[in-house]
Amino acid sequence: MSMMRPDAPIEIAGYQWVPPFARGFVRDLRPRWACEEAGIPYRERLADVTDKPGWLLDVQPWGQVPIMRDGDIVLFESGATLLHLGEKSEALLPRDPQQRAAAISWLMGAFNSVEPWMFEWTNVTAFARGEEWAKLRRPSLEEFIAKRLAPLEKRLGGQDWLGDTFTIADIAMVTVLRAIGGSQLLADHRATQAYVARGEARPAFQRAMSDQLAAFDRNGPPASQGE
Amino acid sequence: MSMMRPDAPIEIAGYQWVPPFARGFVRDLRPRWACEEAGIPYRERLADVTDKPGWLLDVQPWGQVPIMRDGDIVLFESGATLLHLGEKSEALLPRDPQQRAAAISWLMGAFNSVEPWMFEWTNVTAFARGEEWAKLRRPSLEEFIAKRLAPLEKRLGGQDWLGDTFTIADIAMVTVLRAIGGSQLLADHRATQAYVARGEARPAFQRAMSDQLAAFDRNGPPASQGE
């Protein structure tokens, strides 16, 4: 059963609706997934992506989701929400000092050593796809990304998750790698591809995704985007 | 006085020497700076950047520095080392729950919402500077980076640091922004430029930088790079 509860002390901010290309990739998926894994109740608060409200812009420097409230505390950046939730549950962040250190290291690796190149890959293959620079840039970028995937491929050939158990590092890395889901780049790294599929198959992931998409379906596009 | 001590329980890994373009930008600067701010003793362990040793490659998936040891614990990714050191000292990470949450949010923002574009900016303006795609990409990339800098500029016009006090978020953000130091892009954001200068002027920053550079000068290039 979904952990969404209207009166939960934790609030996760997402969007009411996003255009089709962004469906399934909005980053409040990350803390939603973490809450589902750990059985932590949360409520959602949804912003209009076409007309971002003050309660989002006042907290998040770049107007991005998610932001998260926990009682009086407010956080932004999905990585910060994962670290915050991790402190609440051993199902997300092990208490063993070395396992904890490894999980936080891999989480930072996902956000700073892998995702930066995913951002530009999405630019090159989608947003700027028709531009000359994007066509010229793609080969060297994919070569670089393959070097970032190689150590993951080696590691995930021998184990299910980045550490001994599933942690917030896997929530980070699986959601980062989903950006190249369906690409030849990921298909060329079969253990990594299987890892992403393993993450997406978890019931907690599926509940989080389902709740995120349900909001989009329920709300539909804002009037300014309608026909 | 520098916090480097040969027998310190904390070990920070850096490089023996790097080529001139990388001087001052190697990322073990971040945990060194944090140790200097908090008065935490550390020892350095230096790897040959042209022939990376097993003790680095076995720990760090991409063979990057820094890695950090603290007794039996080993971490990688400079962000993870900052979070780990932050737990040791209020001079790095406030104990007030909201100030702590804000510092971790800004730290993640530096690593995931700002630095990704600095990586590509360095590619475009340095490593790939002669390539056609790099010339074509530069204007749109700089336009995007300016949007990332705008909220920083607004915030830092009114306060010295990202939070109420200096924290690991500032170590992260200042070192991220140094990548565009000296550029018109940074000069166009005067409050942010002054913030970077304020960070670099701190005695702890200067000791960390001085110790990093001293190793390069002491060791010089490896034989394979010599004349």
TrEMBL record, chains A, B:
UniProt-listed CDD domains: GST_C_8 (cd03207), GST_N_GTT1_like (cd03046)
Domain GST N-terminal positions: 15-93
Domain GST C-terminal: 96-223
InterPro entries attached to this UniProt entry: Glutathione-S-Trfase_C-like, Glutathione-S-Trfase_C_sf, Glutathione_S-Trfase, Glutathione_S-Trfase_N, GST_C, Thioredoxin-like_sf
Protein name per Swiss-Prot or TrEMBL: Glutathione S-transferase family protein
Species for this entry: Alteriqipengyuania abyssalis
